[in-house]
């Protein structure tokens, strides 16, 4: 983020003169829990994309979801809740846990537990 | 220019007709009712192009004004007392969004007890909202101020909403002789609307009004508003001078009456100043050097200029037609006394709160005040502030 402007440089009356500038705002900084995406389990049902109240699920040119946009994900957990329970390709972890190198492994283990089917996790 | 006989309300409605604003919101309340009643006739007769929005409350009236001003329209409105109180939340939003709405405030007492007559508790309560406030002694000044308010608020240096005040009933309902400018003169004076560079209806350049400012930006936005008020004083002087060239009636920050060599003085807003002038003349006839200062601009308060104008006085009484309950005097007194603090030699200063709820202020009441002022120079005041025109 650029340096915040002083009062002399701000638009009059707190006006926002640039349309669509929410993209520049790192609302991901508000997050206390992170969703972890387990690609191997994902069936591309796009429920997460539909239910995400922001636009934190990235989608490629083929219409398939990729990893989270962590600059805008506020960690609400709706995607993890809506992810079909037989599949469970999204699990929530605390920020501290999510930042660790073994976060993906832990997420997979958690997903297995939640899905109740060990075979769901292939890799 | 033509000489007419009109009430203060009809004079203001005629100023609005000549200004021909884009949008007015109407939810009339006594004693300002006649402004919108008269103006709605102008709308119905096709004498103006204004979109008159009839709303369901004053809160909605000011909200409609804010939306219309943000859209890029020249917007006017009128209210009094509890109507202004109901607008409160939106007054701050109009100022914070820097929308140059012009509101005629016909001063009336706030409830309770319920009362429809004049005092300044309504506009004084709104003094910290960020609006420019201008006060008028009579219908002529109310008419002149309404026209100037448009230019003041829309001035590119400030972009602020302006409240133009006059005394309810005393001025709003009394018929007075006054001069109206020609319609074309007024239209030329106010010119095309230029109150915002970023109207919402400019769809090619979309903007956001009223976005959230938290700990990161709110204080910068308010600091900007503070700065606009600092600049407003010069705008008021500039517009008042230009209006003087057009009408022959020049306006400044305040009016002084026989103050040049005055030793005792009064300060009074609005119609009470007219009464005070009569008593000043009486005391001058007796050889007592009495004078009057009538503030015109109350927000921003021109404290340096007012202190300078008062520095020759030995004793001063500030008349307040509103109380600031629990404070060290009425709202005008607090401002004036603070302004005097930096003078090397200050006049002995007292405060009288008078005329609440429309109680008459008679010549005798002010004679007593002047007599008290002649005694307190040596003996000091017997009380800092007290009510007059009240039964004990």
Structural domains of chain A: how many: 1
Average pLDDT confidence of chain A is 88
CATH topology description of chain A? Alpha-Beta Plaits
Oligomer: heterodimer
Silhouette of chain B: globular
Order of helices and strands of chain A: EHEEHEHH
The secondary structure category of chain B is alpha/beta
Strand order of the largest sheet of chain A: 1-4
Main sheet specs of chain B: 7 strands, mixed
Amount of helix of chain B:
40-55%
Please characterize this protein's 3D structure.
The complex is a heterodimer of chains A (123) and B (392). Chain A is of the alpha+beta class and 123 residues long. Chain A has a single domain (22-120), classed as Alpha-Beta Plaits. Chain A is built from 4 helices and 4 strands. Chain A has helices at 47-51, 78-82, 95-98, 103-115; strands at residues 33-37, 57-59, 65-68, 90-94. In chain A, strand 2 (57-59) and strand 3 form a beta hairpin. The model of chain A has no long low-confidence stretch (mean pLDDT 88). Chain B is an alpha/beta fold and 392 residues long. Chain B has helices at residues 8-19, 33-44, 58-71, 81-96, 121-125, 139-154, 183-190, 218-247, 272-285, 303-310, 331-340, 363-379; strands at residues 2-7, 23-26, 51-54, 75-79, 102-107, 132-135, 162-167, 175-180, 254-257, 264-267, 290-295, 297-299, 315-320, 348-353, 385-387. A 7-stranded mixed beta sheet of chain B has the order 3-2-4-5-7-6-12, with helices on both faces. In chain B, strands 9-11-10-13-14-15 form a 6-stranded mixed beta sheet, sandwiched between helices. In chain B, strands 1-8 form a two-stranded antiparallel sheet. In chain B, helix 9 crosses helix 12. Chain B starts with a strand and ends in a 5-residue tail after the last strand. Classes of the chains: A alpha+beta (123), B alpha/beta (392). The interface between A and B is medium-sized, with 13 and 21 residues.
């Amino acid at each position: 983020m650029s340096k915040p402007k002083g009062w002399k440089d701000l638009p009059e009356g707190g006006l926002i003169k640039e349309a669509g500038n929410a993209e520049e705002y790192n609302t991901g900084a508000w997050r206390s829990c992170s969703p972890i995406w387990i690609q191997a389990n994902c069936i591309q049902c796009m429920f997460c994309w539909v239910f995400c109240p922001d636009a934190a699920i990235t989608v490629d040119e083929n219409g398939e979801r990729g990893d989270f946009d962590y600059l805008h994900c506020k960690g609400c957990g709706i995607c993890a809740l809506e992810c079909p329970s037989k599949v469970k390709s999204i699990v929530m972890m605390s920020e501290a846990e999510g930042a660790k190198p073994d976060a993906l492994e832990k997420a997979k283990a958690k997903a297995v537990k939640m899905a109740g089917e060990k075979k769901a996790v292939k890799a | 220019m033509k000489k007419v006989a009109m009430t203060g309300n009809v004079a203001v409605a005629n100023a609005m007709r000549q200004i021909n604003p884009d949008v007015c919101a109407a939810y009339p309340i006594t004693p300002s009712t006649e402004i919108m009643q008269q103006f709605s006739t102008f709308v119905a007769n096709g004498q103006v192009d204004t979109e008159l929005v009839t709303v369901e409350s004053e809160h909605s009236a000011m909200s409609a004004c804010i939306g219309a001003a943000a859209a890029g329209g020249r917007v006017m409105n009128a209210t009094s007392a509890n109507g202004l109180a109901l607008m409160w939340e939106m007054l701050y939003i109009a100022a914070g969004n820097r929308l140059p709405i012009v509101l005629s405030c016909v001063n009336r007492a706030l409830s309770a007890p319920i009362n429809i007559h004049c005092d300044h508790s309504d506009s004084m309560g709104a003094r910290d909202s960020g609006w420019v406030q201008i006060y008028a002694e009579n219908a002529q000044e109310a008419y002149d101020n309404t026209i100037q308010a448009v230019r003041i608020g829309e001035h590119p240096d400030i972009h602020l909403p302006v409240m133009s005040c006059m005394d309810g009933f005393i001025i709003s309902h009394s018929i007075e002789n006054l001069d109206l400018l020609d319609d074309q003169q007024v239209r030329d004076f106010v010119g095309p609307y230029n109150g915002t560079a970023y109207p919402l209806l400019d769809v090619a350049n979309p903007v956001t009004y009223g976005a959230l400012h938290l700990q990161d930006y709110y204080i910068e936005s308010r600091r900007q508003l503070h700065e606009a008020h600092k600049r407003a004083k010069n705008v008021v002087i500039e517009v008042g001078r230009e209006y003087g060239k057009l009408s022959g009636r020049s306006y400044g920050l305040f009016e002084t009456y026989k103050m040049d060599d005055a030793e005792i003085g009064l300060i009074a807003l609005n119609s009470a100043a007219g009464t005070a002038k009569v008593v000043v003349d009486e005391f001058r006839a007796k050889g007592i050097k009495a004078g009057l200062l009538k503030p015109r601009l109350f927000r921003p308060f021109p404290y340096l200029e007012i202190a300078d104008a008062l520095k020759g006085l030995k004793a001063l009484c500030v008349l307040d037609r509103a109380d600031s309950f629990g404070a060290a005097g009425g709202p005008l007194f607090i401002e004036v006394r603070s302004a005097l603090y930096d003078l090397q030699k200050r006049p002995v200063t007292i405060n009288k709160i008078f005329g609440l709820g429309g109680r008459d202020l008679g010549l005798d009441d002010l004679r007593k005040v002047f007599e008290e002022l002649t005694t307190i120079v040596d003996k000091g005041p017997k009380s800092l502030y007290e009510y007059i025109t009240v039964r004990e």
